[in-house]
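Late entry, evening session. Most of the bench is empty. Finally got around to the prediction I had been postponing all week. Sequence below, unchanged from the version circulated by S.P.
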Amino acid sequence: MKDFVSYTISYQDMLKSWINDICPEDHILIIYDPLNNYEYLRSKSVTLDELHLYESKLLVMHFINIDDALEVMNSIDFLKGPLCEFWSRGRFITDNSVKCNFEQ
């Protein structure tokens, strides 16, 4: 047997690393399994790139306005559609399994 080093990485750690490397200052909405939720997402007016959707496990949406990201996330019902995670400036904030509102 050849000598080698192996290790595992969680999906969450890989995603966090990617977000920190690619878009550390952005507001990001991650939508899991867009292919199996295609019709639901279209009904919510989420734009999907059909050319690359056939192999997609994640849909990444960048937002300039934090409120727009939260509005889209809160419009996607966790029980009827996909899981969505909201990340801001490289940090996980919340997901759509709970309604999120930062107004006081």
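Two things to note before I forget:
Residues 11-22 form the longest helix (12 residues).
The first strand starts at residue 27 and ends at 32.
Will write this up properly tomorrow.
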